[in-house]
Amino acid sequence: MDRVELSGLRICSIFLFAITHSAIADDISAKLEYQTQIEKLRSNEKVQIALNYVETIVARSQKDLIELTEIPAPPFQEQQRATRFAELLKEAGLTEVTVDEVGNVIGRRPGANSERVIAYSAHLDTVFPAGTDVTVKYKDKKMYAPGIGDNTSGLVQVLGVLRGLQHAEISTKAEVLFIGNVGEEGLGDLRGVKHLFRDDAKKIDTLIAVDGGPAERIVFGGIGSHRYRVIFRGPGGHSWGAFGLANPHHALGRAIEKFVKVAPSVTSTGEKTSYNIGRIGGGTSINSIPFESWMEVDMRSGDQSKLDEIDNAFRASVDQALLEENDARLRGPEMTVRVERVGTRPAAKGNPELAVVQRAMAAVQSFSLSPELRLSSTDANLPLSLGIPAITMSRGGRGGNAHSPDEWWQNIDAHVAIQIGILTLIAEAGLAD
């Protein structure tokens, strides 16, 4: 998940909240009514039992973290980890656990007297390819392994929240779905949550996702992204004997040059917008005109109109590069280009007035922490773009080097994030007792 910090934003009595490059330097605080709701929950005997219980299962949670981390879950290959996660949901007390068509693990906890459905989820996949060594190692009181933080510890938090509710025999008004979803990372393109929120799916009223950062972090809005793979193709040939043919590498260079010249006209004004040529490739040898040249491109913004604007600039640059390279050839057939959208995450304006955001903030404050509101690119993007309340909360503990082979995680008060999750989930689902 990628983050943009929004520290120091005053919560105003508005329903639309525009994020710009600057932030107002004031502390944030949940509204009194939500602070009161959380305080009342904390005084409930069963809720106290649940909160206390998660402190007693730290060893169990760490055992689960190691086991799940050492089950590889590359993009599009989450099945093995999903199978074990489903077993853990059942062991925690859920009797209705299924795996849907795309691989999402869904455990249903019935509600007492409401038609509302709350989803509490963490993604199963990591960014690391098959064959990566995911053995957990220990050094300097830290646990090292690819994916141990992002997002295996998120799965462990989901289990911890469920176990707390089960142990305390807490009944909620709304039905709660405990989910391990696929496809959050990279080219997974949010396929897990896209399936959960498809048009003919069972209605979900609120999504509370679990992903990166310290306990006080709350993602309330979505950074959107468009991702492309562009492939220029030509006949190819010997660098001397076939000289004059259209050259895919030359066309790729033209496209990049044109795009990076025009892109600042979009990114220099309004809401932050970014672009990146992340990968390029093609060709067979130094003395061969390549028959293929490709690049992968990522563009992002929290404003969908800005995202569309830079997208249009990129595609126009590619089209113009193809035209110019074909016009410049001395002989042979025209070159072609294929522009394939390989990722779409809709941008979603955050609204800190939403009840679920306020409840999460109040839950954070109840542990004498200051809430940090952020924009990021997470599973919450999709429901937020559809007008469905959603947030992404912290997986707790402390970690670093995410998306790298030396990723680490450390259990520093990790139970606090689970306790905050319990309070937020119960507040959103309603205490049936």
Spatial ordering of strands, largest sheet: 1-16-9-17-8-4-7-3-2
Q: Whole-number average pLDDT?
A: 93
Tally of strands: 19
Report the total helices. Answer: 12
Task: Kindly give the count of domains.
Answer: 2
Approximate helicity band: 25-40%
From the spread of the alpha carbons, the general shape counts as: elongated
Rounded to the nearest angstrom, the distance between the terminal CA atoms is 37 Å
Main sheet characteristics: 9 strands, mixed
Radius of gyration: 24 Å
> What would CATH call the architecture of the largest domain?
3-Layer(aba) Sandwich
Oligomer: single chain
- Name the CATH class of the largest domain: Alpha Beta
Structural class: alpha+beta
Query: Segments where pLDDT lies below 50 for 5+ residues?
Result: 3-26
Strand content is 15-25%
Can you tell me the CATH superfamily of the largest domain?
Answer: Zn peptidases
CATH topology of the largest domain: Aminopeptidase
Entry keywords:
12 helices; 2 domains; Alpha-Beta Plaits; disordered N terminus; nine-stranded mixed sheet; Aminopeptidase; alpha+beta; 433 residues; 24% strand; four-stranded antiparallel sheet
Q: What's a concise summary of this model?
A:
The chain has 433 residues and is an alpha+beta fold.
Q: How would you sum up this structure, described in words?
A:
The protein is an alpha+beta fold and 433 residues long. The chain folds into two domains: 280 residues, Aminopeptidase (3-Layer(aba) Sandwich), CATH 3.40.630; 119 residues, Alpha-Beta Plaits. It is 35% helix and 24% strand. The chain contains twelve helices and 19 strands. The protein has a nine-stranded mixed β-sheet with strand order 1-16-9-17-8-4-7-3-2. A hairpin with a 5-residue loop joins strand 2 and strand 3. Helix 2 packs antiparallel against helix 12. The longest helix is centred in the last third of the chain and has 25 residues. The chain is elongated. The N terminus is likely disordered.
